[in-house]
TrEMBL record:
Keyword GTP-binding among UniProt keywords: yes
GTP-binding is among the record's keywords: yes
Pfam family, one: TGS
PANTHER family: DEVELOPMENTALLY-REGULATED GTP-BINDING PROTEIN 2
Lineage: Eukaryota, Metazoa, Chordata, Tunicata, Appendicularia
Domain of life: Eukaryota
Residue ranges occupied by any OBG-type G domain in the UniProt entry: 64-289
Domain TGS residues, every copy: 289-365
Native species: Oikopleura dioica (Tunicate)
Family matches, as NCBIfam families: small_GTP (TIGR00231)
Protein name: Oidioi.mRNA.OKI2018_I69.chr2.g6702.t1.cds
Keywords of the record: GTP-binding, Nucleotide-binding
Amino acid sequence: MSILQKISDIEAEMARTQKNKATAGHLGLLKAKLAKLRRELIEPKSGGGGGKGEGFDVARTGDARVGFVGFPSVGKSTLLSNLAGVYSEVAAYEFTTLTTVPGVIRYKGAKIQLLDLPGIIEGAKDGKGRGKQVIAVARTCHLIFLCLDVLKPLGHKAIIEHELEGFGIRLNKKPPQITFRVKEKGGLNYNAQVEQSELDKELVQSILKEYKIHNADVTLNEDATTDMLIDVIEGNRIYIPAIYVLNKIDQISIEELDLIYKIPHTVPISAHHKWNFDDLLETMWDYLKLTRIYTKPKGQLPDYTEPVILRKDINTVEGFVNKIHRTLMDSFKHALVWGSSVKHCPQRVGKDHILMDEDVVQVIKKH
């Protein structure tokens, strides 16, 4: 039986099973089996295997990468063309973009790479279409624009989210507060710091058994679900912020537009008329959480034209110094910082100091 057949059988069984306390253990096991099968699809066992999809290994350029994901003909290519001036072959029928087309925009001094990912269709996570390679590229993005047609948004949104979830991409979610550690012996050490509405020791044990794990420490620091536990055990989940870009607002009324603005993580636009692009770019900047740092050579004014852009995981003085030059850290003595991250201007700081947006930094070297 093929993996796809096994997946559809398990999904059918899950749909048939009533959700209640008595079936929680059974459903938990089915979810664990499903997660393992999906992983086999994404990472085939070593040995032969097909070549990579053409045009899917896009070199990283710039300070951040934004992926455009959406059904065919929702206006992704028009949006990308109008944002970046990149000509991605645009036609009025489905599936015009077949490879990943990179474009780069400059916004607030940062270079942001935009990737138009080919139309994701139902079944991408099961290897249909070219969705498999597309989602592999989507996993490397720092932000995803889910492009939806304002006239049929909810059905498309649910399908695309389901596809991305199946590939271990979690949109607008935080990693679960679950500590999980496999050990040599000692059985299961289960510790729930808060009251659990779904998981208990038996259910955790049966899910771990499905993974052939018999000795582990599991600490639940929040009210966790079976899915959250499986995410932590699998360990290959990626948490990416996403913005729902609702295109074609020129085709709806003002009242409908007011309703759309109330949906979280949503920006309504018209790619064709270039409406509301400033709001989209500003929201993109907020979600990327980039930090602009200006350099100040000794005895000179700060250079406000070319900021050094840091992502939130490396926004320390050390991250800033490494971004300028890898060997500079060897001769680093301390740094002088002007800006909102310090109490005094300038303030002398060490390499672990966390910088904030639009700080000015002068690096002092050892003699």
